[in-house]
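Render this sequence as a predicted structure.
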Amino acid sequence: MDLLNTIDTTNLPKHLAIIMDGNGRWAKQKGLLRAFGHESGTKSVKKIIETSAKLGIEYLTLYAFSTENWNRPKLEVETLMRVLINSLKKELITLQKNNIKLNAIGNLEKLPKSAQKELLDVINKTKDNTQMTLTLALSYGSREELVSAVKNICSKVKNNIISIDTIDDSIINEHLYTQNLPDVDLLIRTSGEHRISNFLLWQIAYAELYFTDILWPDFKEQDLYEAIISYQKRERRFGKTSEQIK
């Protein structure tokens, strides 16, 4: 069955976020080093980016490297950084061809200077693209993001820039890394793990969650279609009753 033709293009998630999990396990199952899993995972990244743009999804956020990932073995971290730099160099053509704007969130100053340079270069070269905004979460942790936001807000209150009585959801949003992004509508996690892993905790408050056992290097267009079809079958009530929605 052609799943693409069953998708309602008027009911797409505006903001799709993906926890790309399972590269290491994919490699281990094949008797390969984990580095090969990360390399292979970039093929799925390319395909899902292109497919999302063609579908008409406006915002795609990929969890590429967490704050906790810095604790992995040094060789694996170095491999991940190398894969990141090489991917940015190679995928610039793909981003330009598909009119995709690159964005990045996280504690980017912790990235190697070479990765920061390549990242900034691609961000600058794609800043005027309008088809879709692709956000890479790099050296990202939602708790760190929230702590940073609280500190910045407290500083502004202390200096009489913000009144404590005016603090609401919008004020907090303005101090998050994702201040220019809408809330997440659909969050996908691959590899069979059923947890959020410190990813966009504030932004997924009313997101639909979709978990699949497929390891990230094996996640293809049809798998994305299945996730979106599942999303479209759900009733999003945002705290209201079904009768109120109808």
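Summary. The helical segments are 23-29, 34-55, 74-97, 113-125, 142-158, 169-174, 221-232, 242-245. The mean pLDDT is 95.
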